[in-house]
Design brief:
Length: about 100
C-alpha cells in the first residue's frame, strides 16, 4: 500500500479528532449560563476541611483569596463560602513561588 495514503488517513483522522475535541470542549459554554459557569463547587463536593493536609493548606494554594489579615478567613476561586487559610480540599494546587 502507498505510504502517502496511510499518512493522509492518519492526518485526516487526527484532524477529525481535533475537531471533535474542540466541539466537546465548547459544549459547556453553549449549554451552561454564565451564572452556572461561575458557580463554585460545594465544600462537601471538594471534601473541604478546616485543617491542613500536611504542609498543604489554603494559604499556600493558588486558588486562595486571602481575607483581611493572614489569619482571617478568605475565599476560594474553586470552592464556595468562607475559607480558612489553614483549610484544605482535593482541588489544592500549590502556589508557584
Ligand atoms: S482549592 Fe481547596 S485548598 Fe485551594 S484554596 Fe480552595 S479550598 Fe483551599
Amino acid at each position: 500500500m502507498d505510504d502517502s495514503r496511510d499518512n493522509k488517513i492518519t492526518r485526516r483522522s487526527l484532524l477529525k479528532s481535533a475537531a471533535l475535541l474542540a466541539g466537546v470542549s465548547a459544549v459547556p459554554g453553549v449549554l451552561l449560563s454564565p451564572e452556572a459557569q461561575a458557580a463554585k463547587a460545594s465544600k462537601a463536593a471538594m471534601q473541604y476541611r478546616t485543617h491542613p493536609n500536611g504542609k498543604h493548606e489554603c494559604s499556600n494554594c493558588m486558588h486562595f483569596i486571602p481575607g483581611s489579615s493572614p489569619s482571617a478567613n478568605g475565599k476560594c476561586t474553586v470552592v464556595a463560602g468562607s475559607i480558612s487559610p489553614h483549610g484544605w480540599c482535593i482541588a489544592y494546587a500549590a502556589k508557584q513561588s
